[in-house]
Every structure is written in structure tokens, then in C-alpha cells.
Amino acid sequence: MSTTTTSPTAEPTTVIGKSADYLDQRTKIGVLTKQLVRKVFPDHWSFMLGEIALFSFVVLLISGVFLAMFFDPSMALTTHHGAPATMDGQLMSVAFSSTLDMSFEVRGGLLMRQIHHWSALIFVAGIVVHMMRVFFTGAFRKPRELNWLVGTLLMILSLAAGFSGYSLPDDVLSGNGLRITDGVIKSIPIIGSYLSYFVFGGEFPGEHIIPRLFTVHILLVPALILALIGVHLFLMVLNKHTQYPGGGRTDRNVVGYPAVPAFATKMGGNFFIIFGVLALMGGTMAINNVWNYGPYDPSPVSAGAQPDWYMLFLEGSLRLMPGQAEIVTWGDYTLSLNILVPAVIIPGLLFTFLFVYPFVEAKVTGDHREHHVLDRPRNVPARTGLGVAFLTAFVILALAGSNDLIATHFALSINTITWVFRILFFVGPVFAYWITKRICLGLQRKDRELVLHGHETGRIVRFANGEYIEVHRPLDEQERWLRVNYEARQPLAIEPATDSRGVKRKGYKKDKRWQKLSRFFYEDRVEPVTPAELAAAHAHGEHDELEPAHDTPELVSGSGTVEREH
Amino acid sequence: MSENQNPQGHDLTRHDGDGTVARTDRFADPGVPEHHPRLADTDPRAAKRNERIIAILFAISCLGTIGSLVAYFAVRPDGTTPGVRLSTVLLGVALAISLFGIGFAAVHWAKTLMSSKEYVEERHSSSSSEEVREVVQQQFKDGLEDSGIARRPVLKGAVFSALALFPLAIAVPLVSSVGGDWNVGKFRNTIWRKGMRLAYDPSGRPIKASDVTVGSVAHVIPDVPAEERETHEWITEKAKAVVLLVRLDPRDLKRDHREGASYDGIVAYSKICTHVGCPVALYEQQTHHLLCPCHQSTFDVADGAKVVFGPAKRPLPQLPITVDDEGYLMAEDDFNEPVGPSYWERLK
């Protein structure tokens, strides 16, 4: 800490000291370093999920540079010479031929290809799981809404990166993926055909798409991702990390370990472990053996082909939509709602939900404060329920993207499976919301129960008068604090429709709508135990800890939504 | 930064998030839990043992790196899939050992030997203070004043016009070139012409009607010279022109959409799905159903290839066929509608 902040009076003697002095005299870097070196970071395993995404991206860059040295993104036709024997002498694009060469001729090339592919899958998975952590703990609340938006953009960019990379080898599978993309683009009203020409430089497949995707994949998207990662981490440091609730953790402090040494060492170690896992996967788990599929040819297609997992939801969405939705509008124009709805509107709605959620929640909570202590998911049942409903919709669509495999694997009718998924897509999320919310409320009640009555010890005591009781051990204050330190939010209170003179108030209807939404969020809630309630519970008798639960009104419903009176 | 301090103590008037005095009907924050020393903090022998473990882990990493070099130089893949697999597994596992060694050593070091003392750091409001905001507002006001733009509205218009227009100089050449000739009318036609023979895909051998047995299915391309099939234009043409040919018992054909479109129970339909354009390739003989493996649109070949299930709406376009003098199957014309997925001006 002291080597980098030199004072003009003490001449540095060590090499590090001298370099630091040199640098600082020119950059004032000491000021910045002072902020960072011993900056306190809270510690929790779930804070590592974002690191998985970040470090997978670093591995993607490293392995990607290796691949770029040997890949030739050209769609010119060539006759392949060399391994593998099945492809020797075949006519194919230079892109596919160079993919074969880097797998078979370049030593370590196949390893790097497989590491790159696995890293991409883990990268997107890391982002999604990290987003789940942020969502369910309410880490997106003020002042971090902007960083949530940056993160959501990063998630979408990661899909773009994955898709553009998947298409590069120009094999049968990726070619068919591009063909589906072309079909989706053409479904866009008015400009669809022209957009298809814009993307492919003419008719599908043409000769331009692979070089274009290559530029997108190795320049545009990674540059954007890098820039946004920079913003993401800058905002994280600026806002300081959130922390889980617990003793001594408030919205005005941050409790944890200094960046140097323990935190940075763990983070660095984590990078090597993640890289190690990816190397192990790349070394031992074959992925995308393009030589088994062959070069792109518009005619063949293999049954049971699956896109990478993060594209499955789009694939499933396309599979579920009934064809009847394609309509011909006035003037004989074709509106392909059978493609537009599942491939553009559904994902659009899912992403929109992610973008607007923090602002909607803040609005229905009537909340303008900064939040740095995370919520336990059970303490915000509506949010947790909505998150699970969202994931349910996503998973159902992804499963629908594998309906052919489910059909062949379990010997079921594909038509039946498709119909089941069609219904589940609407029913599943609603049911998931309802059950999740109930579970959260149940857990909150259990917390109350624990705080009021303590842990069951299993010790049964018989008194002289013949009475049996089970001894309960009260919670220690840390255990109790975790369970009582939350706010049971209430539905918004709004101003009445007319003021005291009976004049209609502007904006009342809008307020009323927000209040309705607010009720949906916060009507059912479980209040935390207050010291008075705990005292009352104890006052029931020195030894009798088993008083019935209905003594205390736990689940409050509806109150607090009345309009304020003048 | 203060060590392990309980910031508010145990009194009931504590501060919460936004600095207001909290209600007293809430429990008091018990403060940061007591710090428990680890075994290595109190027992020098445990610390020494951990030091040894960490050193061994780093050593394992070095061995992994050496192993990966050995694998690189010793195992030369011979161009066969098993050979390449062996090299990949050895290089991958050695690399993983080299990385795991460093990773686990670092984490173990941090968890056992580096200080585990928790620190408490104050947070400050995320916004800047009122004074700063005022200063900044004043600065912008001064800047605007200095620029004089408020007094010179002509300049305001001029600068915005110039800035808004200049991207056109880049965007127009880019956008107009990027779509090739923009002739989207090409979607309408394929290379099928009257008299063009049907040929097997990929061999290119013309198909004799008598060779097609009832119940059989053939993947078909137009009969063009072999050298033409080795150009890139061919792939783009093939992407529209591929056809699936099925011979049914003529009695099974439920109806015929176009007079003379089929020949003696032989029907030819575009292989490009009318949903999003995958090749429709799975034919089921018993039901005469044709299934698209991408999104499971199902077409009934015996009934004009109309959709019986799935996300496609329209039947597959039919290629009208007949036989020439030598008994080879040939096209009577191009498809009478655009093949493949729908688009806005498809019916125009």
C-alpha cells in the first residue's frame, strides 16, 4: 500500500518503489490506487457467479486469438486435401476447410476450438446465473439500476457473440441455423426481404455472410462487450458491492475483506480454476465435430439437431407457434405472425421485462432510497415469484426446442408434446408464480415461528404436575437479526380522487393503476417480529413455549391500501 | 476504515438506510459477528502444513505445464480422429492440471494464511453534494454563455444540420452496397425451366420415371452440367431449387392441385419448408407425411403437401413434372409461386 504512494521527501530505494515513483510523478496514479488497494469487498459464494462470466470471457479472448490465427473466413469453394479422410477431396468453402485444418493439422487446435466452444456456453450460463442472483436479491435497486441495464445489454451481446461464432465453420448445422435466421428476417413486415439482402449481400446464402459474421464476431461484438464490461465493473467499484444482510451490515457501510491481498488472491485463483475447468472440458468433452456434419449444402439436414443451449428458447418458441397465424393483410401483403410472434415478439417481451423491471418495482414500492443490503428472496415474495415465472417460461421454451429429442427419447408423440408445451407456456409461469409466492410466505412464517419460539431441541421435559413440554432454545441475536431485519413493503397509498373542495385531481387514474399493480406486489405480506411480539410470546409462561400460532396476526392482507384522508 | 466496530452500538435509536431515526419497535442491530481465528491463525504447525500444501499445489502446476509440453512434442496426431483426440485429451488435461495447481494454491493461500479479519468501510451517498451540483450547473451556464449560441440561433441550426447530415456520407455508400443488387424479385424464381430434367442429389444422374418405385423417395436437383455445380452461384440456386420426389400409388393421391402436375403417382414438391426454410427431409411412407426436422411442420404429400401440423401455414410448392421422349422425368415449368418462407410482398 505504501510503495505506490510516495512522498517527495523520501526517495524510493527499491525497484518497485522507483517504478511507482516514476509512474506517479506522471499520472498521479497514487490517488486511484489508494482507493482500490484496500477497498473492502463483501464475501459470498454467489458474488463469484459474475466472475465465472468474466473469466470465461477472458478464456474466450485467449482461445479466440489462437483460432483467428488459423481460420480463413472465406466462402470461396475449394477442394479439401488432407485429414480427415472422409472429407479428403470434397468440395467445400475455404472457411470449412480451414476449420478442418485447424482441428486436424494444428496441434492443440482442436483443444482450443473445444475450449472456445465450451467457454461460450459457460459464458452465457455464467451471465444468466449471475443475473438470477442479482434479480432475486434485489441488487438491481437504486443506485444500481443503470448497471442492471448494462448487464442486460451484455447478456444480449453474449447471445450475439455466440450465434455469430456458431455460424462461422460453414458446416451443415450452422448453415441451416443461418437459413432459419434468414426465414425469420424475411418475416419482418415491409422491410424483411431487403433486410435479408442487407444481411446476406443478396440471396441466401450468397458469398458474404461468413466474412461479415467473422467481423461481427471478432471485432464488433467483442469490442462492445469489452467496453460494457469496463462500464459494468467501473459502476460496481463506484457503487461499492452490495452485501447480504447480517449483523453490522447496513445501507451505510460495507463489511468484508480488503481487495489486497485476500480478495484479489481468491479472485485470481478463481480465474485459474475456471480456466482449468474449461481446459478440462475442452480436452475431454468433444463438442461440435463439424467433420461429421460435412460442409454446408442447402439440401441435407439431420434430424435431432440442436442449437447451443442459449438459442434453444428461440427454437422452441418457433416450434410451438401454430402455422394458422400467418395471415394475408389488405393489399395482398403477407404478415407471417407464425414467425414474427415467436421469434421477434416473444423474445422482445422477455428482454423488455428484464429492462423495465427495476423501474417498475421502484415505482410500485414508492421507493427512492439507496439499497446496499440485499434482500433475502423470501422477503419479497412477488419479485421472487415473477423471477421464477420468467425462468419457467424460458425453460419451457427451451424444452420445446428439444421436443423432437424428448419424443424419440421417451417414445412419445411429438404432436402431443408440442400441445403440452403450448399449454404449459401459458399455465406454467402463472402456476410457478403462485407456488413460489406461497413458498416465500411460508418461509417467512417459519422465520417468525423461529424468532418467537426458538429452535426445537428434541428435549421433552415432564413436570411434577404431569405436564410434558418440549424445551425450545431461543435464537442468538445474530440468528434473530437475520430474520427480523427486513421491511414488509406495503401497497402504495395515493391521494384521493378529489381534493378537499371536491375538485377532480389530475393524474388520479394513473395513480390508481399503479396502486393496483402495487397491490399485486405487496398485498400479501408477512411482517417481521417486533420486540413487543417477542416479549409477549415469552410472557406466555416461563416454560410454555408452545402457544398456538394464531395468537399473532401474521399474514396481513389488504390493509394499508386505503387512500389518505384529509 | 475501522476494524470490527459495531457502528451503532446496542441502543434502540439507530440509523437506517436513509438516515432517518428508526422506529423503536424494531430489533437493534447486534453488530458484526465476533471474529473467530482459524486453526492456522493460532497453531503454527497448522500454518506450516498449509504452507506446504500451497507449495505442493504450485509444484503440481509446474508439472502440468511440463506435461503439456511433453504431450505437445511427443504425441503427433496422425490425421485420424482417434489420433487427434488423444493429442487433445493429453494437452487439455495437462493444461487443466497446470491451471488448477495455480488456482487451488491461490485460493488455499487466501483462505488459510492471509488475514481473515473483516473490515467495515463507510458508504457515502451515490450522488454528488448540492454544492457540487450548483457549481456544475453554473459551469454549464457559463460555458453556454461563453459560446454565445443562445444569441446566435443561426449557428445553432447550422451546427445541428451539419452534424446530422455528415453520417449520410458514410451510411449511404455502406447501406446501398451491402445488399448487393437489392433485387428481391429473385425470390420469385428458381432455375427450373420447362424441359429441364430431374436429377438425383448429389450425384447429378437424371431420373427415369420407370426407376422410381411406388413408396420410394428421392432428393432431386435440376440436371445441370457438373462444372456448373462447382460454383458458388450454384449453392445459392440450389438453396431454392431442391425438390423432394415421391411416388405414391395414384389411388392414394387425394386430389391434384394442378392438371398434369404429377406423373403416374410421382409428385415433386419443393424441399424448402414454407415456415423458415429448412430442408424438409423426413418422409413417412405409411402416412405419406413429410416432416421438417427443424420445427416439425408436417405436410401431407398425398394431399397437395398441405400442412397437417406445426408452425408452417402454406403447402409446399409443387414442381409440375412429366416425362420426356426417353422416359426421363422433366419439369414442365418453374414453381408457380415463390418457394421457402413467406415474406411481405410474396403475393405481389
How does this model look, in words?
The complex is a heterodimer of chains A (566) and B (348). With 566 residues, chain A is mainly α. Chain A folds into 2 domains: 38-73 and 94-296 and 310-375, Cytochrome Bc1 Complex, Chain C; 445-557, no CATH class. Chain A has helices at 15-27, 29-37, 49-68, 94-104, 109-136, 145-166, 172-186, 192-200, 209-239, 259-284, 290-293, 312-320, 337-365, 381-400, 403-410, 414-453, 477-484, 508-522, 531-539; strands at 40-41, 77-79, 91-93, 253-258, 326-328, 334-336, 455-462, 468-473, 524-526, 555-557. A two-stranded antiparallel sheet of chain A has the order 1-4. In chain A, strands 2-3 form a two-stranded antiparallel sheet. In chain A, a hairpin with a 5-residue loop joins β7 and β8 (468-473). Chain A is globular, with a radius of gyration of 30 Å. Chain B folds into 3 domains: 39-120; 133-178, no CATH class; 190-331, 3-layer Sandwich (Rieske Iron-sulfur Protein). In chain B, a hairpin with a 5-residue loop joins β9 and β10. At the A-B interface, α5, α7, α8, β4 and α10 of A face α3, β2 and α7 of B. β4 (253-258) of chain A pairs antiparallel with β2 of chain B. Chain B: This is Cytochrome bc1 complex Rieske iron-sulfur subunit.
Question: Briefly, what is this?
Answer:
Chain B: GO terms for molecular function: 2 iron, 2 sulfur cluster binding; metal ion binding; monooxygenase activity; oxidoreductase activity, acting on paired donors, with incorporation or reduction of molecular oxygen. Helices cover 58% and strands 7% of the residues of chain A.
Write the layout of secondary structure elements.
The complex is a heterodimer of chains A (about 575) and B (about 350).
Chain A: H1 15-27, H2 29-37, E1 40-41, H3 49-68, E2 77-79, E3 91-93, H4 94-104, H5 109-136, H6 145-166, H7 172-186, H8 192-200, H9 209-239, E4 253-258, H10 259-284, H11 290-293, H12 312-320, E5 326-328, E6 334-336, H13 337-365, H14 381-400, H15 403-410, H16 414-453, E7 455-462, E8 468-473, H17 477-484, H18 508-522, E9 524-526, H19 531-539, E10 555-557
Antiparallel strand pairs in A: 1-4, 2-3, 5-6, 7-8, 9-10
Helix pairs in contact in A: 3-5, 3-10, 5-6, 5-10, 6-9, 6-13, 12-13, 12-14, 13-18, 14-16, 16-17
Chain B: E1 2-3, H1 39-42, H2 44-74, H3 81-112, E2 119-122, H4 130-147, H5 153-165, H6 168-178, E3 198-200, E4 217-222, H7 232-241, E5 243-247, E6 266-270, E7 282-284, E8 289-291, E9 298-300, E10 306-309, E11 321-323, E12 329-331
Antiparallel strand pairs in B: 1-2, 3-4, 4-5, 5-6, 7-8, 8-9, 9-10, 11-12
Helix pairs in contact in B: 2-3
